Amino acid sequence: MSPRPAIVRTVADLRQQVAAWRAAGKRVAMVPTMGALHAGHLSLVRLGLETCDHVVASIFVNPAQFAPHEDFDAYPRGEGRDAELLGAAGCGLIFAPGVEVMYPPGFATAVTVAGVSGPLEGEKRPQFFGGVATVVSKLLIQCGPDVALFGEKDYQQLLVIKRMARDLDLPVEIIGGPTVREADGLAMSSRNAYLSAEERTVAAVVPAVMAEAVERLRAGAAVAEVEAAAVARLEAAGFGPVDYVQAHDGEAMERLGPGPVGTGARVFVAAWLGKTRLIDNWAV
Question: What is the C-alpha radius of gyration for the chain, rounded to an integer number of angstroms?
Fold first, then answer.
């Protein structure tokens, strides 16, 4: 078994190790996470090692992206297990700061990204992308990696981070890693741990509905008709509320319809199953 990576908790210690790697001529990748790791996170570590010599993974449950009524306190945590998984995947360093490091007393700055953050999650969770953009910009500045990797399961988030890095001239390449799925197609997510055994069986309806929607859109069906049918099927399976099933452009996040979709379109879904909110997206 690979040794656990060293864990640093201050920006100074993080920068010291990254500087040592750079002095040796090495390239560095970063995988920001909130912990509770699964195979999707680990695939990003391995993807980072394809182009870089070392990978830094951050573990920080970011309070700024949770609304007061959301699951910040309940969000799954387990640093020891995460460290073992990261070591086995080849991660070279873990940055696990406390809230006081990321948001010290008097912290008064926020990063907001317009445009791509507006629809879907931007409407349903208006605090979310501001919290994400702020914490990710800090992590990238703190670490200074050559490459940073994020999963395509959170596709809109990936677009927000790419826009933020481009607009702020951050010297880092943002790479999206493919969504990793369970055997029945359900997108891997730390929040899947909230599902009961019965709910986990029902959850497989999400990828089935998405696959059908994509097939119908490729065949030329009307966008509004496909979206409505997908919502109805999810509700019939026991999901509720269904926050959205919508087709959007995969670059500007513009809403599509009513005619046939074009190149680059994606279908996005967010739906509640009991107390668990599942999200996914599929390329058309």
Answer: 19
| DSSP assignments along 207-262, one per residue | HHHHHHHHHHHHTT--HHHHHHHHHHHHHHHT---EEEEEEEETTT-PBP-SS---
Cα distances (Å, whole numbers) of residue 266 to 5, 153, 245, 254: 37, 12, 10, 10
Q: Which of 38, 41, 54, 69 is catalytic?
A: 41
Superfamily of domain 190-283: Pantoate-beta-alanine ligase, C-terminal domain (3.30.1300.10)
176: number of CA atoms within 13 Å, CB side? 14
Q: Residue-wise pLDDT tens for the chain (284 aa)?
A: 578 999 999 999 999 999 999 999 999 999 999 999 999 999 999 999 999 999 999 999 999 999 999 999 999 999 999 999 999 999 999 999 999 999 999 999 999 999 999 999 999 999 999 999 999 999 999 999 999 999 999 999 999 999 999 999 999 999 999 999 999 999 999 999 999 999 999 999 999 999 999 999 999 999 999 999 999 999 999 999 999 999 999 999 999 977 778 778 999 999 999 999 999 999 99
CATH 3.90.1170.40, applies to 6-177: no
**For the chain, which residues make up each domain, given as ranges?**
6-177, 190-283
Predicted model pTM: 0.96
69 catalytically annotated: no
Do the two domains 6-177 and 190-283 of this chain adopt the same fold? Answer: no
